[in-house]
Every structure is written in structure tokens, then in C-alpha cells.
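Researcher: Sequence of Chitooligosaccharide deacetylase follows. Predict its structure.
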Amino acid sequence: MPPASRDLLGHAGRPPHPRWPGDARLAISFVVNVEEGAELSLGSGDERNEPVHEVNRILEGAPDLCMESHFAYGARVGIWRVLDAFDAFGRKATFSSCGRCIAATPILAAEPARRGHEVSAHGWRWESHAGMEEALERAVIAATVAAIERASGQRPVGWHTKSSASVNTRRLLWEHGGFLYDSDAYDDDLPRILPGAPPGHVLLPYAFDTNDMRFSPGGGFVQARDFSDYCIGAIERLLKEGSAGSPKMLSIGLHLRFIGRPARIGGLEAILEHIANRPEIWVARRRDIAEHWLTVAGAGGRA
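Model: Prediction complete. C-alpha cells:
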């Protein structure tokens, strides 16, 4: 029998202690996905239209003006509600941004950066990289980094691919240089350093369950409290594990066009209210978590 193609053992029930700052029992990373203008669209010269927005619908042969308008809501309206919510509670997030969207509307990176948030890279178009030709993927990474750096004044140090990365993505990130972390994994509650990774590169797992993408059709979230109740449940469970000596990390995913709607923004505000003034929780940008993990690894916490 051939060996397993991937590590399914993990920490075997004995994860390393992350030693979060302030002896926190949980690290929370809010990730705001900025994709507006990077969705596939015949109107933007792409090969097809994006089929998923507030409804599941495939329009072929013509630009989908309905889909384009749904995405535009996030850039025109949603981002300001999201930014104001974080400001109201004094919290910082990571804005995971598609290069094409930032190139077309630079303020979507410039304003989060001005307010102290991290702006990281989320590909050029909002698309999977699985099967992408290597030379094209190399160019996509370079173009995305350049667009974000021009708009925000800061070189992005994090990467996350929509859906599946290619078998080359991580190696190409390493070859490009300058990346502190990538989030192309969903298999753990803690960061780790991969075998063969260059010095200074961390894998920060992401999550699709504690994510407002589940407001999309059939995703299970309808009311704002569906999202906040689910995320708060995860927070309290992980705090319980942290108090038993096993602190973890939680990613909470947001999208401007989803959580930025007036009936949904209260879900984010409820989470921020729930974790306010709780020193046992460390809310941090992803780059801060990766930098901390490197200090843990350097002290013998490599995992």
C-alpha cells in the first residue's frame, strides 16, 4: 500500500502550547475578504460569469449585471459598515484582498491600511488556483503583491487562495519571497511551520464554518444571530480548552457583500461585544499571529 498523501496525525491530541501574549487562552483572527471587482465576469473580459452571489444562478453568453451589482454593494457600502464596526470596538483585522479589485478601487486597501488593519493577498481574480499553469500563477502572485503595495503603501506578507491552491502555490510564494505566512489549509486550530519551509514562513489555518459565507444560498445562516451565535459557540468552546491548558486560534471569516448588509452587520457587532474587555482573548491581525508563532518556534515550539 502507498503511504498517506498527507499528514492526518497532526499533534495526536497533544498540541504545542502557543504561549499567546498576555497568557491569553484564545487568539482570534478576523479576516475580511475583499473580492469586489475580482469576481469572474464577462463584463470584465473573463471567460464566464461568477454563478454565486445572493442567489445561485448561471448566466451564459452575456454580462451578468445583477451579479456585478451584488458584488458592488460590498465595495460601495459594506466596507464602511465593517470598518466602523471594528473602529467602535478598537479591534484590528486582516483584509484579505484580490489584486484586481484593489487595482480598480485602491481605496479598498488604502482605507483599511490607514486605520491600522493588515492588507494581505487573496489572488488576482477571485478564483481557484488548482490546475493553473505555473508561469501564469507566478505572474498572478507578482501582480497581486504589486497592486496591494501600490494602494496601501505596504507589501502584503500573507496569502490565501480562493478554494484550492495549486500543487505549486506554496513553492511559488516561497520563491517570490517576502511572505510571512499563507492560509491555504483548514486542518487545525493552531499555526505550524511546514517541513521544508524557508525560515520565517508560517502556515495559519483558515476556517469555512465560522464564516459569513454561510449567508449564501443554502449555507445555513439567515439571521445575524445565526452567525454570531455560531461563532460565539466556537469562542466559548475554545476558551474552555484554553483554560484546560490547550490554547487555540480561531479564524472568523467576513465578506463585505455579506456581513456588510444592514440586517447582518449586527452579527459582527454581537461578536465584538461578546469579546470586549476580555483579557483572556487576544484579537490580532494574522501577521501578528504569525510573527508570534515564529517566536514560539524559535523557543522550541516548532510543530
